[in-house]
Amino acid sequence: MSGLELHEGQTRDRLSFPWETPPQPGHTREVAPGVLWLRMPLPFALDHINLYLLRHEHGWVVVDTGLNTPQSREVWEAVFTEVFAGAPVLAVIATHFHYDHSGMLGWLVDRFQCPAYMSFAEYQALFVTPPKGDEPNWAFSQFFQRCGLDSDQVASFRPMLSQMAYDTHAPTSFRRLRENDLLKIGERCWRVVIGSGHSPEHVCLYSEDDQLLIAGDQILPRITSSIFVSVTEPEANPLGDWLASLRRFRQLPDAVLVLPAHERPFQGLHHRIGQLQQHHEAHLETLTTVLKTGSQTVAALCPVLFPRLRGSFDLLMAMGETLAHINFLREEGVLTRTLEDDAWRFGLASSGEQVFAAEDIHV
Which of 73, 100, 245, 362 has its CA 20 to 30 A from that of 274? Predict the structure, then answer.
């Protein structure tokens, strides 16, 4: 699932936005020769996703697809007629596996009998789905129990998950994208830049000649992609992956025009990367400060980082984000973990104590 955290009141004085307003939902705008920005509607509080359409010889290459919904199909049908004027889709590139980015991937690929391009880990992630049924399975229940929630709180997540799940029409084959692969699309050459943390191997496309970066969810102007730990990999350290990715993206020119998956294209890449780093560093500092008073569960620490939760969905995402910061600090040797009453408790490591962030085995 895709989750994004809104930063209210964030300063953006060093970011510039070439377009004051986005295109209307279902409409396009040319942002560079042969590059169209398509605003696809979403049925969420975050009510849109930006897709990018790239001219190539006698057809088009599509970057990301929208949710697998009737509304998305209606928009695509209009694009086929009014924008593509009957020219075919020649390839579809998925930046990552989340529903809003890859929901229509198989539908487009099958319709035009064209290849899907994505990284290996993102393709594999298409087939990892939440457990089915109304009753939580043992791994799901145990994960949130270990976080410090009671059985009623855990049970409240399941109906919400079934309601928010969107089927992804996954293609039966794909062509793998790797770091530094080069794609010649039209007259432009794009280099693949891989990010990680928000998803396993998030694909971005960088055009050096035209200073364009199709960034997906990796770099956004006002919101930051959720960096969270889920039941699928409870010992993961996505925040470590995310921060390492940001350092790599800083090697790109600051003047690049960033074409994000949400909100408006912008310039000021290095300033925005600095903001994202500071945001997570502040979360890490807050956790270590609070834990000076004694060990805590994830559930107890969650409202410290996210005090304005509006419901079960917010709680689910906030728990995963909080655990991502905890797992980062554990891997850095800052925190220890003990199991008490079936819940993990996290505390500061004693001065000079050697800490290993390995999985504890309990039988």
Answer: 100
